[in-house]
Design goal:
Blueprint lengths: L3 E5 L16 H12 L2 E5 L28 H6 L5 H6 L10 H22 L3 H6 L1 H17 L16 H38 L3 E6 L8 H5 L14 E5 L9 E6 L3 H6 L3 H10 L5 E4 L7 E6 L9 E4 L2 H11 L5 E3 L7 H9 L5 E3 H4 L15 E3 L8 H7 L5 H12 L14 H10 L5 E5 H5 L26
Parallel strand pairs: 1-2, 1-12, 2-3, 3-6, 6-9, 10-11, 11-12
Antiparallel strand pairs: 4-5, 4-7, 7-8
Helix pairs in contact: 4-7, 6-7
């Protein structure tokens, strides 16, 4: 069986001395760890500039990079900061990102680095080449600072909608600050491309993740209001989410504005296609988050407190997937097809030959899974960034739970353990990985927490909760 393995680990979770993982030495060290252990894939979360809740799935821009993932060591190597600057930016190592401390120390570091960078770089061409997203992003950042609020719906009417003339007027007053923000983007982008080139040279394929929806408080929605279900003042008319299920009796109310799919279709889905094009400049494969929503989506009325009262609506899948397959080969994508997966969604996925996902934790809920019969073209995960770690999942099972009973039966039937060995929290992660390896799936992705056998303290995200997520880090280097 020609099965290849990958690791799921976001850049922010890498170890290091600056409070948050970055694209510096730890990323290169982890690449070496992957090659030495015969992993072929590194899957990450989005690299975009996080908004509320520090979530990479709630970014201020769907294109702009997160400036706090910059490597201070590379800034020093490139002559943009001093050793003294580097020393001042250090933070105590821990298993959690302390975002407030990171923002404070890296903002100070950025002030020095961008001044040095701008002394030798003219960014006019950089801005011109990326103007379609960079100008709205720069204007959005400036106005968010002026209002001390990124909720553009509360801004004065003259600022509630982006235009090039608005950008020009802001540039006249705040060009120094806007150039500093631009320099951050240029520097981080350079670090990302160097990192990606190193991965390719090392034989590692980089898998990224691209959310379907955009954040309401983002430069993209603010600058493209006609492409969303908003009224003429920018107020949301409907909200994105998913319906109630066994995990969330009230469903999940994400709050993102929903697309106006007819308008998107008129423009050839350019907003989405540009996101893919931009992402493929530094990624090899893209996981299409919430794939279901490209076919049908759960629409919840504005003002709802839960997702219970939503309803299903049809997107424009025929037109969308026609454009997608004209522009990109199917081998570039993975479908995150979890959730309410009806036959129509499966048909679109299979018609364009995009592989779907299997999450092993879910497979024990209803019956004893037939792991050896899984389709070869599915991507098998022991868990995702939205799941409990395998150790936490196991510890939370009760002996009478179906998942526990089915898990034990599978282990016994397939002789996973040596005689006399018992299943416990110290070996469950290795057991689950062994089970995944028994499948014929050509690609198996394992969260780093499961490789390390970590518990609840290492969970990355609890869906439906806005705060307290995305913090886990490895405390040690490889």
């Amino acid at each position: 069986m020609n099965q290849e393995l990958g690791i799921l680990l976001h850049i922010s979770s890498l170890p290091g001395d600056y409070g948050i993982g970055d694209f510096g030495p730890s990323a290169y060290d982890f690449c070496e760890y992957l090659t030495l252990n015969d992993y072929k894939y590194w899957q990450t979360l989005p690299f975009t500039h996080c908004g509320y809740g520090n979530s990479p799935y709630n970014p201020l821009s769907a294109y702009a990079f997160n400036p706090y993932l910059v490597s201070p060591e590379l800034l020093y190597q490139d002559g943009l900061v001093s050793l003294e600057d580097l020393q001042e930016a250090k933070l105590p190592r821990s298993q959690n990102v302390q975002f407030d401390s990171v923002y404070r120390t890296k903002d100070k570091l950025w002030a020095t680095a961008t001044r040095a960078y701008l002394r030798t770089h003219d960014l006019s061409e950089y801005i011109s080449q990326r103007s379609w997203y960079l100008k709205p992003y720069l204007a959005f950042l400036i106005l968010s600072l002026l209002y001390e609020d990124s909720a553009w719906i509360n801004w004065e009417e003259e600022h509630r909608r982006y235009s090039d003339s608005l950008f020009d007027s802001l540039w006249e007053q705040y060009s120094t600050k806007m150039l500093s923000f631009t320099a951050q983007q240029a520097i981080v982008e350079d670090q990302i491309h160097r990192f990606h080139k190193h991965l390719r040279n090392s034989g590692i394929t980089l898998i990224g993740d691209i959310p379907l929806y955009l954040a309401y408080e983002s430069a993209d929605v603010w600058a493209n209001q006609d492409l969303f279900d908003l009224n003429n003042k920018g107020k949301r008319l409907s909200l994105a989410g998913v319906p109630p299920d066994a995990f969330a009796k009230d469903g999940q109310l994400w709050g993102n504005p929903i697309y106006n799919w007819d308008k998107l279709a008129e423009r050839g889905f350019d907003l989405i296609m540009k996101r893919y094009e931009h992402a493929f400049s530094y990624l090899d494969l893209l996981r299409l988050d919430h794939f279901i929503g490209y076919v049908n989506y759960w629409s919840v009325p504005e003002g709802s407190l839960t997702a219970v009262n939503g309803h299903w609506l049809k997107a424009r899948p025929d037109d969308f997937f026609r454009v997608l397959t004209e522009k990109y080969p199917h081998q570039k994508f993975i479908a995150e097809d979890l959730g309410v997966l009806n036959q129509e969604v499966c048909a679109y996925r299979d018609n364009i030959s995009i592989p779907g996902m299997i999450v092993l934790q879910f497979c024990f809920e209803e019956s004893v899974p037939k792991v050896r019969e899984y389709p070869e073209d599915r991507i098998l995960y022991t868990a995702t960034h939205d799941n409990k770690t395998t150790v936490e999942w196991f510890n939370d099972l009760e002996p009478e739970d179906d998942s526990y009973i089915n898990l034990m039966q599978y282990i016994n039937d397939n002789m996973i353990l040596a005689e006399g060995e018992e299943v416990n929290e110290r070996n469950i992660h290795s057991i689950i990985i062994k089970i995944a390896r028994q499948s014929p799936c050509r690609m198996v992705i394992i969260p780093m927490q499961d490789v390390l056998g970590l518990g609840a303290e290492a969970r990355m995200n609890i869906p439906g909760t806005a705060l307290g997520n995305w913090q886990w880090r490895m405390e040690y280097s490889f």
